[in-house]
Amino acid sequence: MAKNKGISGFPEWLPAEKKLEDAVIAKIKRIYESHGFTPIETPAVELLETLSSKGEINKEIYAVQRLAAQSDSEPELGLHFDLTVPFARYVAMHFNELVFPFKRYQLQKSWRGERPQKGRFREFYQFDVDIVSRDELPLCCDAEVVTVLAKGLLALNIGTPCLELNNRKLLLGYFSGLGLSDDIARQAISVIDKLDKIGESEAAQQIEALSVSSSARDRILEFVAPIVSLDQLASVLSQVSLNSAMAEEGAEELLTVASLIPKSVRDHIVVRFQIARGLDYYTGTIVESKITEFPEFGSFGSGGRYEDLVSKYLSKNVPGVGISIGLTRLMDLIIREKLLPLPQLSSARVLVTVLNEEVRKEAEEFAEALRVDGVSCEVFFRSPKLGKQIDYADKKGIPFVVFLDAENSVKNIQTGEQVSFTDLASLKRIVCTEDLQ
Amino acid sequence: MAKNKGISGFPEWLPAEKKLEDAVIAKIKRIYESHGFTPIETPAVELLETLSSKGEINKEIYAVQRLAAQSDSEPELGLHFDLTVPFARYVAMHFNELVFPFKRYQLQKSWRGERPQKGRFREFYQFDVDIVSRDELPLCCDAEVVTVLAKGLLALNIGTPCLELNNRKLLLGYFSGLGLSDDIARQAISVIDKLDKIGESEAAQQIEALSVSSSARDRILEFVAPIVSLDQLASVLSQVSLNSAMAEEGAEELLTVASLIPKSVRDHIVVRFQIARGLDYYTGTIVESKITEFPEFGSFGSGGRYEDLVSKYLSKNVPGVGISIGLTRLMDLIIREKLLPLPQLSSARVLVTVLNEEVRKEAEEFAEALRVDGVSCEVFFRSPKLGKQIDYADKKGIPFVVFLDAENSVKNIQTGEQVSFTDLASLKRIVCTEDLQ
């Protein structure tokens, strides 16, 4: 017999769990669409050349090659490892057919050949939004993607989202203002980015090891320590001596973004100066997010501002800002911790029972008439004792069972209440009560 | 500069086309759910062992391997080439956690390294439904998946779907009854399956070449010629001498399935005895589908009955019946032939214009209040002359533009009509008129 076990790092859900994932996707999608983002989808594969960065190809990329290909031929295709690289290639390729600012959302799987571990997968859904434009992209776009991330997480109703906002220019500029060279400043930022994990004394040691003076080290640790509400930001920044034009610019950007976050999500966003999000990619706004009830889980969604999307392909200046929600990680937590109830397996409101095979045709026509009238339903596939048929409805979460005989009747499985009905309209009224929809 | 061209056989759509695809998916999904089918999703990859059939691995499968893997190591994973093989592995793996009859739908991409051509892709979506059960699966399930295929195609409103129904036992049994050996009968079926393409005289020659007597050949060609409405089926079959128990069984099955097709779709289904759908897989009911207006396009969706889903993995008897809609082929036709209008790029009902950057914060809060109230909207990202902002709304298909000033007003872009509004509720009434929803 062939193996039927799963492949490590490639999760799959049971039917009710998949249905829950679809519901979660629908909630996030509704938020994205309510802001006018438009969907795109790219193939699962890109040319390996497209997936390379500065000529380097990450060895954790999955290469894709027909089995029929010569065994000595080099693969040319790979599965994408995020949605940003395919998005960049897409924008370059369709540049003249897009409306700018281009606001897109994208829900697709990505693949990374990393070691699987709790909450980390080799195949995983990401759900991204980005806004890109030509030449210049104002900061209201940063505020919009941050807002959309907050609203997306809030819509899930699985705890209290907290977004942490920062600005790379502020961080890099502040460190430069303390006399750190660009290279040392970037290394110090890497240390700061790990502060939550390694703790302050370990961070202090690692910064000292970069030959940073102890006074600069202390000022760095003091600067990055506070967590600041959006409304306090101006006052906190006014008390810090920034000492560099870049830091001033970053502070100004952060204040502008903070000012444009609407009331509906302001309470869920703070500024935290120790957020850095890696080194090379982001150039201004950066954001991470937590669910307060699961502090150890890491970020559910993150992103930021980048100054250059398509220069690898086109001599155009296309800055952008975007966020990515780690949907599979999120679903894994939701399922494991039972944060949301599993939906009923069947979308049917009604199971039409079948007394015997002679009346099956009638039952099928009845069910189809119900569906045409907008009521989802199933017909039991055999005609055993009614108890067995009711059991099936119960297992699939179908709330009502219909019996077609001399006196047509419908039974609410949960309450046990059974009433007769005269026609489709009266049945529809019974099974489509508002509190159950 | 890196290439930014697409990869042959790996289609991607422009944003409005993708939005149309999502709308098409939603329509088919609604039909599937109205019959109580439940979604599942499997990883893109399976073990190559799982993808093999009788120990043979199709060379057109795409193997997947980390670039970091030793170059002399054999790949173990491949992208699935259909949704049936992953479904079989899924059912075997989760057998004790599923409710039987298990009615599932599955929308995923598959990959085949075939030569790309018009309407044939290397990466493509399939949208499948199957019903499987333990030990025995009654014929009402065949009728249900055929019905669901017809309803799915009808829901798209892109022409007149016509489903062609047949039964493998009837075909094989009829040929056996004429004295053809099992092997020759199967070869003759392959010829019949191509009748539409090769024509009757070529088919006659190919059947003769199988050493079939000319009288048997004539009876075969006569038998497979008619196209029969469901209501005429009994009368047509009663005039044919079937000459074998297998043919009688197939005829009985076909009659039962035909009798259970509901009125709502009966006019879109015929029986056509020359439909065979390949050789080894299907064992009873088979179905193909056309859109009458595009006869040259081939089948939009097809499927049939199989007796054995999981025996490769489990010593269980799991018969099933299912259909698969070739979604990417369908979308390619819809887009190429403009069979459906492209949706507006933005889901927003309203663009909130921004007179100058001083009032941006107010505009953003206004827009967010609208969204909280259920009205999707965008805020223009800069504050150029209003004409430019209205142009953007026009390009993105946003029907209304709002101006916030001393007298707040809203303009219908298409009619040019502009009226003032006093509060959110009155604006909502204007922009969410029923005929535009």
Summarize this structure briefly:
The structure is a homodimer of 437-residue chains. The first copy, chain A, is of the alpha+beta class and 437 residues long. Chain A is 37% helix and 19% strand.
Topology:
Two copies of one chain form a homodimer.
Chain A: H1 15-34, E1 38-39, E2 45-47, H2 48-51, E3 62-66, E4 77-79, H3 84-93, E5 102-111, E6 123-132, H4 140-156, E7 161-167, H5 168-177, H6 182-193, H7 195-198, H8 200-208, H9 214-224, E8 227-229, H10 233-238, H11 245-259, H12 263-266, E9 269-272, E10 285-291, E11 301-306, E12 320-325, H13 327-336, E13 350-352, H14 360-372, E14 377-379, H15 386-395, E15 400-403, E16 409-412, E17 418-420, H16 424-431
Parallel strand pairs in A: 1-5, 7-9, 13-14, 13-15
Antiparallel strand pairs in A: 2-4, 3-4, 5-6, 6-12, 7-10, 8-9, 10-11, 11-12, 15-16, 16-17
Helix pairs in contact in A: 1-4, 5-6, 5-11, 8-9
